[in-house]
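Regression report. Comparing outputs from two consecutive submissions.

Submission 1:
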Amino acid sequence: MPRNWEEHYTAAANRDETPAPLLVQAVELLPPGRALDLACGAGRNALYLAGLGWDVVAVDSAAAAIRIIRVQAAERGLAVDARVAGLETDAFTIEPGGYDLICDFFYLQRELFPYIREGVKSGGVFVAEIHLRDQNCHRFVLEPGELRAEFAGWKVLYYSETVRRENDRPTAQMIARRA
């Protein structure tokens, strides 16, 4: 059953403000540049990046999530270009060579992988954590090895397929640099 993301983000209890540990690890040694946070949710990663001086574009289909980002950014004095756009409907186009960093946490739309690869500048980084197939198999999960294969030819700085302690679900995690 599809989730109602508007209701999800309207519920205050569903707002995790802690940035993804993998993203924190990835940007630790990167100079700030232009970043894209795909399916950004309530903006935990976008706000973190903006706080470090990144020029951030954050995209999500849930207007409630984008409202949260805009309010949080204003309260913190941060600039985030937060946009309501359904990625499945081509309402947002990833600009070729437009980003030093693209991050994707827990969102899978296979058709976006070629656009993500083209959207990262030479020397830029893609950071992702996406659920893997398990007993609850559906189309929004990766097959083992699939994420790594999508970025063949890139310098993989970190890759793992493991079970997340928070919810006992397997995920693929990757930090990869475009040549």
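Submission 2:
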Amino acid sequence: MDCEIVDGNPRDSILYEGRLSSGEERLWATGPDMVTDGGYASLSNQEKAKEYGIVNIVFNKLVGSLKNVVTSVQMETRLKKWRSGIEAVISNLKRGFHLFRCEWKGRDHFDAKVLWSVIAYNIRVMTGFMLGKLVPQPR
């Protein structure tokens, strides 16, 4: 849905609200559920998510006395499993499109490498889905 390349290596926790507002701007509304990497885990980020109307807030790794905010244990499990699936996508991008190291020189070339890799990955996924629909299914 979105790909943002930031300058430097900022902490995840300071990028959280930007992700919330970006989702709202691009998707016209944030969904009721959000699961993120443990780097985003903080009480202030949890409060920001509540302000955006997010009901189920799950951080992959909790810090201190912070607890996930969920309507049920089943919802927490579903969101954690969904997050595991996202890790597979990230791994596929890194290995399949060589994003673990970019040897293209300059910021513009780096940005192009990342964005074109994301586009190519999405085309590959959509093509695989469509080819699966074209193959005759056994009756």
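Expected: both submissions complete independently.
Actual: both completed, but the second showed a warning that disappeared on reload.
Relevant detail on submission 2: Strands lie at 33-36, 56-59.
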